[in-house]
Design a protein that fits this description.
The structure holds two protein chains of two kinds.
Chain A (H helix, E strand, L loop, with lengths): L6 E6 L2 E6 L3 E2 L2 H16 L5 E5 L5 E2 L1 H16 L3 E5 L3 H10 L6 E3 L2 H10 L7
Parallel strand pairs in A: 2-4, 3-5, 4-6, 6-7
Antiparallel strand pairs in A: 1-2
Chain B lengths: L2 H24 L3 H16 L1 E10 L4 E8 L2 E8 L3 H9 L3 E3 L11 H6 L6 E7 L5 E10 L11 H47 L11 E7 L7 E6 L29 E2 L15 E8 L3 H20 L4 H12 L9 E8 L5 E6 L5 E4 L4 E4 L18 E3 L7 E5 L2 H4 L9 H12 L4 H16 L8 E7 L2
Antiparallel strand pairs in B: 1-2, 1-6, 2-3, 4-5, 5-6, 7-9, 7-17, 8-10, 10-11, 11-12, 12-15, 13-14, 13-16, 16-17
Helix pairs in contact in B: 1-2, 1-5, 2-5, 5-6, 6-7, 9-10
Classes of the chains: A alpha/beta, B alpha+beta.
């Protein structure tokens, strides 16, 4: 279990399945805290691949998208992978308008998300 | 000592305290005040050395400014440390004959300075509300003959008199310093704001067959939204109606009044463009000064590329590659840029931007102009497509907004949303572009009420009359 309150992580080797416990990502403080905890998983806890499960998330702002992209770039630098799953329909729209869904892979469930990352050998992917 | 000599001594010492009080009033700069007080305290108390510390509640530290060379240097330590810390936290007077017999004494300073602290008299300084704002310390009392001795009840009474004055003066000086710094920062933000205001469109284009209007309102003194009209490149003799005027009615936002103008053509000279007019809206993620600085870079880039005659999708691709190295990994810019000519197909690029609303009068329905590429500044080498829509016919209205419009919230935290915007446009589509813009702005304003504006609110209206 990861420290801090927001992320519950289950380890599968160097892949972490992260269940996000926060419902709303609208205010700067909450968003920054998410970014710190998530970055910590890559930087200090040895994860190269992350599946972010958004099942509990009801609202997110564009600033949160920025943080997800920063996480994606970090994971890329580690030659790992990032996948999202269980993103609610109305939230998917934010990803679709910004077209960030073409970069951040959104999957229907954890299983598919894990599979997409495990299938990739640790290396560059687009 | 006889009663007469006691009184004489008290009078003499209190005169000294009064002199110090007068001298304090003349000094407002904190460093100078502290230096003066330290010297005066030693003199009044017949102490070898004195020190003065102020409480920093935010950082839970005691600090002082010590004269060094031509300026001052700051020293800090935890608020609970040493005898000074004890006085600051408990409000008690500390009077001891030999500091080294007291375990609370912090020996570090002696070690650094080579001073040998013996007797100590230390008490809190309070402001006029009685709050502890610092600590005053007299060290190594000297007897009339010059030998080291201890501090007495009388000394405690005397230092108390001095401390009473010093506490008030110091807290006022500290407040003044804080206020001056705050004013300086506010002035800098004012300058930034007026620079940004200068970057907004000076006028809406006035063109036969098209009406333009716009609105910009930042939630801080400066904002990350960008709105602009790019005039046709090349050609001579293009004269624009000039001037801008306000929308009327106060804009509600945090802090200083935000930039807020609804540009509409002033009656004046018309011009015939010999090319396409660009209407552009961009939204830098975040808000406030950092976003405004990036907005400024986006504007300069888009202007330069437009002047090169590049099509909208090439502008987006080039701007993306230019901006990406300079933006932090979590920043991006959404942008909608359309080239518009009366009676001709609208061609646009949308870099991850909120789809504009296009009201078609003949069909009485809305058309949506979807994204044609990724947000700007995220990934080097992103590719962008060119989107298109049929030419604007009479009564058609194009409204391009930033997401601050939809995300504006009322007192019950409900969002304005897309449907309300569409309703506004539907309701006012028969009126001029300016009237549509005013309708949107006033509906938004009424909706938000007294709630603080959480994001920049920006939109453009283009209408075919």
């Amino acid at each position: 279990m990861a420290k801090g309150g927001m992320l519950m992580v289950t380890r599968h080797g160097d892949l972490g399945v992260v269940s996000i416990q926060q419902k709303q990502f609208l205010n700067d403080e909450v968003i920054n805290r998410f970014a710190e905890e998530a970055m910590d998983l890559i930087e200090s806890q040895g994860y190269a691949k992350l599946v972010l499960d958004f099942a509990n998330v009801e609202y997110l702002s564009s600033k949160m998208l920025g943080k997800l992209m920063a996480l994606y770039k970090r994971v890329q630098a580690e030659k790992g992978g990032l996948a999202l799953c269980n993103v609610r329909k109305d939230l998917r729209e934010v990803f679709e308008v910004t077209q960030l869904d073409t970069v951040l892979n959104l999957h229907a469930d954890q299983g598919k998300a894990i599979k997409s990352l495990e299938q990739k050998k640790r290396g560059w992917f687009r | 000592m006889s009663a007469g000599r006691d009184d004489a001594r008290r009078l003499e010492d209190l005169s000294k305290v009064l002199e110090v009080t007068r001298a304090m009033a003349a000094k407002q700069e904190l460093g100078e005040l502290l230096t003066m007080l330290v010297h005066s305290t030693s003199e009044v108390m017949d102490a070898e050395r004195s020190s003065l510390f102020l409480v920093d509640r935010e950082r839970d530290e005691l600090w002082s400014k010590v004269a060094e060379g031509d300026g001052f240097t700051e020293i800090r330590f935890p608020a609970s440390k040493g005898l000074a810390g004890h006085a600051a936290t408990t409000g008690e007077v500390v009077r001891i004959a030999d500091a080294y017999d007291d375990e609370r004494f912090n020996q570090e300073v002696d070690r650094k300075t080579g001073f040998r602290t013996r007797s100590v008299l230390c008490m809190p300084l309070r402001d006029h509300d009685g709050q502890i704002v610092g600590v005053i310390q007299a060290l190594n009392k000297r007897s009339p003959g010059g030998e080291p001795t201890g501090f007495t009840d009388y000394d405690e009474w005397l230092l108390g008199a001095l401390a009473a004055q010093a506490g008030v003066s110091l807290s006022q000086a500290a407040l003044l310093e804080h206020f001056i710094e705050k004013r300086r920062m506010e002035r800098d933000l004012e300058v930034a704001r007026s620079i940004q205001q200068g970057l907004l469109p000076a006028e809406s284009p006035e063109v036969e067959g098209l009406e333009f209007a716009w609105h910009f309102s930042s939630c801080d003194e400066t904002g990350g939204d960008y709105v602009d009209f790019l005039l046709p490149t090349g050609g001579a003799g293009i004269e624009c109606a000039s001037g801008r005027h306000g929308l009327g009615g106060p804009q509600k936002s945090a802090g200083a009044a935000p930039l807020s103008t609804c540009g509409a053509p002033m009656p004046g000279r018309k011009h015939r463009p010999d090319g396409t007019i660009g209407a552009v809206i961009a939204d830098v993620s975040g808000h406030g000064l950092p976003a405004a600085l990036i907005m400024s870079a986006v504007r300069a880039t888009v202007h330069a590329l437009w002047n090169e005659g590049l099509g909208p999708e090439r502008i987006a691709a080039t701007a993306n590659d230019l901006l990406e190295p300079d933006l932090s990994p979590d920043r991006f810019v959404t942008m909608f840029l359309a080239g518009i000519r009366p009676g001709e197909r609208v061609e646009y690029v949308s870099a991850g931007h909120e789809p504009p609303v296009l009201w078609r009068a003949r069909a009485s329905e809305f058309e949506s102009l979807g994204p044609t590429g990724l947000v700007l500044g995220m990934l080097q080498g992103s590719e962008y497509g060119r989107g298109g829509a049929d030419a604007l016919e009479s009564g058609d209205v194009l409204v391009v907004t930033t997401d601050g419009v939809f995300e504006a919230r009322d007192a019950s935290d409900e969002m304005f949303g897309r449907e309300r915007l569409r309703e506004c446009v539907r309701r006012s589509a028969g009126m001029s572009a300016r009237a549509v813009a005013e309708e949107i702005a006033s509906t938004l304003s009424d909706f938000v009420g007294d709630s603080l504006q959480g994001d920049d609110i920006t939109f453009i209206v283009v209408r075919a009359p």
